[in-house]
UniProtKB/TrEMBL annotation:
InterPro entries: ComF/GntX_DNA_util-trans (IPR051910), DZR_2 (IPR044005), PRTase-like (IPR029057), PRTase_dom (IPR000836). It comes from the Bacteria. Residues 145-228 form the Phosphoribosyltransferase domain. Residues 9-42 form the Double zinc ribbon domain. Signal peptide: none annotated. This is ComF family protein. Belongs to the ComF/GntX family. Pfam families: DZR_2, Pribosyltran.
Length: 230
């Protein structure tokens, strides 16, 4: 009885609300209400993982297999609102929940034995220190749990890069040159690796990560992000 009282008191003082619509959450709801989960702009990339517009986007930048994203990114839409929560509102648990949700979809479509490791795109240590966590790592943790695939921080970010927002595709690739290195004592050699990030725009960051992994003898590399635009 005392635990229920404490919980009710905490819910009163620190109400748990859906991060999209603001409705009060039920006990079984973590960050998003069931209604908002049901209206997320989920893509169908998992149905055509090697033949879709994301694959076209990264073609020529790296030697990749599957390229997928959980949500369709639209400016001002729910996917952008979720990414904003991750980057600026200190919501690592939301990133993990999104990973769990997408991981369940991938599991149901037979992807559970596709990868040996999940490797998140690393943040620069200064940026991670300011934010307090790496949202890509927490997304990867959700995927790891749903798919029973080990997550390993197999990459490190060696330099702080300029913003990519106003850069062309080739400029973004140049900006990512020598940004990433493999982690000391990483176990990526001979492994099928899934690289995960929060969002894909041109794919330059993800391809730079994939190229480092392949140069360090990864067997093959696939990509998954929380969201991707057109």
């Amino acid at each position: 009885m005392r635990l229920f009282f404490v919980k009710d008191f905490l819910d009163l003082v620190f109400p748990r609300n859906c991060l999209l619509c603001g409705r009060s959450l039920y006990d079984q709801e973590e960050n998003l209400c069931l209604i908002c989960k049901g209206t997320l702009p989920v893509t169908s990339y998992h149905l055509r993982p090697i033949d879709n517009d994301l694959c076209d986007k990264v073609r020529g930048l790296s030697t990749l297999g599957m390229v997928m994203a959980y949500l369709k990114f639209t400016k001002g839409g729910n996917s952008q609102k979720l990414l904003h929560q991750l980057k600026y509102r200190n919501k690592p648990q939301l990133a993990k929940e999104l990973g769990l949700l997408y991981g369940k979809i991938l599991y149901e479509h037979g992807f559970e034995k596709c990868w040996d490791l999940i490797v998140p795109v690393p943040l620069h240590p200064l940026k991670q220190s300011r934010r307090g966590y790496n949202q890509s790592e927490h997304f990867g943790l959700g995927l790891s749990e749903a798919l029973s695939v080990k997550l390993e921080n197999g990459l490190v970010r060696g330099k702080f890069t300029e913003t990519q927002t106003q850069k062309s595709r080739l400029q973004r690739m140049d900006n990512m040159d020598e940004v990433f290195q493999s982690s000391p004592n990483s176990s990526i050699a001979g492994k099928s690796i899934l690289v995960v990030d929060d969002v894909m725009t041109t794919g330059a960051t993800l391809c730079a990560c994939a190229n480092v992994l392949l140069a360090n003898h990864a067997k093959n590399v696939d990509l998954v992000t929380i969201a991707a635009g057109g």
